[in-house]
Amino acid sequence: MSDQTKTWLGSRLPIAHNIGNQLSRKPLAANQPYLAALGMLITATLLFLVLSGVVLSAYYVAAEHRAFQSIQLIMRDVNDGWLIRSFHATGTTMLFAAVYLAIFRALVTGSYRLPGELVWSLKLVFLLLMLLVGYLGYAMQDSAVSYWSLHGVVQTGAGLASFPANIFNWVFGGPAGPGTLTRLAVMHGLLTFIALGVLALHYFAKQAITPPAEKTVPLHPYYTSHHFVAAGVYVLLFAVLVFFAPHLGENPLNQAPANPLLVPAVTTPPWYLLPATALTHALPGTNGGIIAFIAAFAVLFGMPWLDRSAPGARPGFLYKLLVVVLALDVIALCLVAAAGPSTINAVLTIVFIGWYFLHFLVLTPLATARELN
Amino acid sequence: MADLEVGAEINEVETLVRRDFLKILTVSAGAVALGATVWPFINALNPTADDLAIANPIIEVGAIAPNSAVRVMWNGQPIYIRKLTPQQIADNLAVVASSLPDPADFTSRVKPGYESFVVVVGLNTGIPCELLGNSPTDARGPVDGWTCPCDGSIYDPLGRVRSGPAPNNLAIPRFSFLNATQIQLG
């Protein structure tokens, strides 16, 4: 941009000028790790998903029986449609990987501790929104497995005694009626934009609590080049998955169209929905699954207060070890959920979910109480 | 000491040249990568393969009887393909183009070498109504062409408007003759 243009823009639209200038000169703490780029990568991935989603929506038909066909059209007849869909599917995988990693990192580094409770809560709200958006995208395919999953959700919701039937009809357009997929598609897009808003809130909330660093460097060129390296690795992994494993973590049976008369033999959802699936299978009955899901998120939201460490204390070795064990526990829980129902898996599910709650409600307060400033 | 200073200057210049080179290299590589990523998104908005497959239909015209027309739906519009009689060709060659509401001479309405075939969009250019006159028994008007059942406009066998309210001649779709008996639309 020429100096003349800059002066003109600065006088007509001061905010754009100031943001550009202040952002590039923004002082940031030196020696940040590469994982500090996660927030930027998550935002970029979500925008990329919006872009590919817009192109897909030019061809996707949100109607019973026709949705699956329209996806086949995208895969076969739309120019580079297979690539755009692969971008969208793999982008989802990358996004969830980054979000789960960011939440794991926040737990390990203790960034949820006061005064980080709002930043932490916004992370969880973002995860909840992404789970919802991811599930809606999965259900929108109207294929063999996702059809029955959606069917189950609608039946569950309709069967909840405490749930007003009206609300459910408003959301789903009746018991999986002809209008259901249209509503799911609208919510899929709408919640994405709400999630972008949550990301913005997260960014500003984080600005408010970041303490002044002893040694700072300006964002440009130090962190632009630093994040460029992180983004390079991320994009490389993205590209490898797009071209060599576009259906990573998906149930192969989901490649068939929905059949209202045939439940598929294996009903595993995509990998990123496995934690939620495992929770909903944890306790018997419809309400049990919902209670487990709410409780699992409740303890996460409660972390800033379950943590008994002294103000300003850094997480100790024992606590960090417990978080790593927790991550392994959640992975094991997902593997059990992916393996499908059996007697032994029912027991294992209870054990792993039991450890999850034990970690948050007992081990975390005990381990962190020993951490002094 | 002067030598050392000169050497230091050269090093500085070399560093700058190298830095410029790296900058140009990085920016160009980034631009190429960005272009390669953006292209599929734009290309996906091009017509799909199934649309293109039906976009250029081949029509058999060898069996059309002289003095009648066939109607083909293409791109959501009725396409009329009419075979003229020698009498109609002679009559219309005799018409002075400048005397018509929308002047057009004979050669502009047909393909050279295939003067007996007229291919037009069969929609009136005034009120958009589908025209009558494909069969010799239809209402064809005084010049043996087409008439509009909605506003009474009259066209000649070449699709030129003879009397109005329609302002223009019938549109001619994009087409070409593959041989004497086949035409391809589009």
How is this structure best described in words?
Chain A is mostly helical and 373 residues long. Chain A has helices at 3-12, 14-25, 38-57, 66-76, 81-109, 117-140, 144-159, 165-172, 180-209, 219-244, 274-280, 286-301, 303-306, 317-339, 343-369; strands at 27-29, 216-218. Chain A has a two-stranded antiparallel ribbon. The longest helix of chain A is centred in the middle third of the chain and has 30 residues, at 180-209. The radius of gyration of chain A is 23 Å and the shape is globular. The termini of chain A are far apart. Chain B folds into two domains: 1-46; 53-185, Rieske Iron-sulfur Protein (3-layer Sandwich). In chain B, 32% of the residues lie in helices and 20% in strands. Chain B has four helices and nine strands, in the order ααβββααββββββ. Chain B has helices spanning 2-43, 49-53, 86-93, 106-109, and strands at 58-60, 68-74, 77-83, 117-121, 146-147, 154-155, 161-163, 175-179, 182-185. In chain B, the strands form three sheets. Chain B has a three-stranded antiparallel β-sheet with strand order 1-9-8, with no helix packed on it. In chain B, a hairpin with a 2-residue loop joins β2 and β3 (77-83). The chains are: A mainly alpha (373), B alpha+beta (186).
Could you tell me the radius of gyration of chain A in angstroms?
23 Å
Order of strands across the main sheet of chain A: 1-2
**What is the level-2 CATH architecture name of the largest domain in chain A?**
Up-down Bundle
Q: Structural class, judged by helices and strands of chain B? A: alpha+beta
CATH topology of the largest domain in chain A: Cytochrome Bc1 Complex, Chain C
CATH class of the largest domain in chain A: Mainly Alpha
Largest sheet of chain A: 2 strands, antiparallel
Average pLDDT of chain A works out at 89
Number of domains of chain B: 2
Helix content of chain A: over 70%
For the report, how would you describe the main beta sheet of chain B? 3 strands, antiparallel
**For the residues shown, what is the average pLDDT of chain B?**
83
The rounded distance between the terminal residues' Cα atoms of chain A is 50 Å
Count of helix runs of chain A: 15
* DSSP strand count of chain A: 2
* Integer count of domains of chain A: 2
Shape of chain A: globular
